[in-house]
TrEMBL record:
Transmembrane segments: none annotated. This is Two-component system response regulator. Residues 1-116 form the Response regulatory domain. InterPro entries: CheY-like_superfamily (IPR011006), OmpR/PhoB-type_DNA-bd (IPR001867), Sig_transdc_resp-reg_C-effctor (IPR016032), Sig_transdc_resp-reg_receiver (IPR001789), WalR-like (IPR039420), WH-like_DNA-bd_sf (IPR036388). It comes from Phyllobacterium sophorae. PROSITE patterns: OMPR_PHOB (PS51755), RESPONSE_REGULATORY (PS50110). One of its GO terms (molecular function) is transcription cis-regulatory region binding. Keywords: DNA-binding, Transcription, Transcription regulation. GO terms for cellular component: cytosol; protein-DNA complex. The keyword Transcription applies. Residues 123-222 bind DNA.
Amino acid sequence: MIVVVDERSLVTSGYSAWFAREGITTTGFAPDDFGDWVATVQESDIMAVEAFLIGECANRSQFPHKIRERCSAPVIAVNETQSLENTLELFQAGVDDVVRKPMHVREILARINAIRRRYGNGGTGTQIGPIRVFSDGRDPQINGVDFSLPRRERRILEYLIANRGRRLNKAQIFSAIYGIFDSDVEESVVESHISKLRKKLREQLGHDPIDSKRFLGYCINLD
């Protein structure tokens, strides 16, 4: 899930539509709401965020520090005008990258993945055992062969591998795949997606790589 912060609702809804075409869930915030949210949100919700996009808003140079107090997800500022002074100010404030509109969402995803690779947090072409996942919309591969999955199952597999070594509960996976405020879908749908994913992986690998423990959640084990 990607969090977008902008004072214009048309902008946040536009990003939501663009990222959805790439199979990525977004959650949009007005600046005032985001400040309150990032300071008080539950850890399980903020740990489901894969990146933050900070658009046009007052006092946005304050947001990177607030984000860093809670998580290490990439922070990208989006500018609509070219200004060296403004760009330098944003980098000084702690953003990981500054981009200028218009920019295709695939390039934004590529920049997010590059930042995550730089800090050792995965990215495009992450391989664990025989499975390689891509965070740019491509299907994963098993032993070098494309392994086609429906969008939700693919995103769950990517999320599990990106968080390898951590056990993720159903709420975290739900937030990452459907967004924090999606009330139209029940959390129990995660169990259905994971059940289908496990069956397909078992058929390909000969064993179930997803370990689950009641009340604790799921983790991937491919070592």
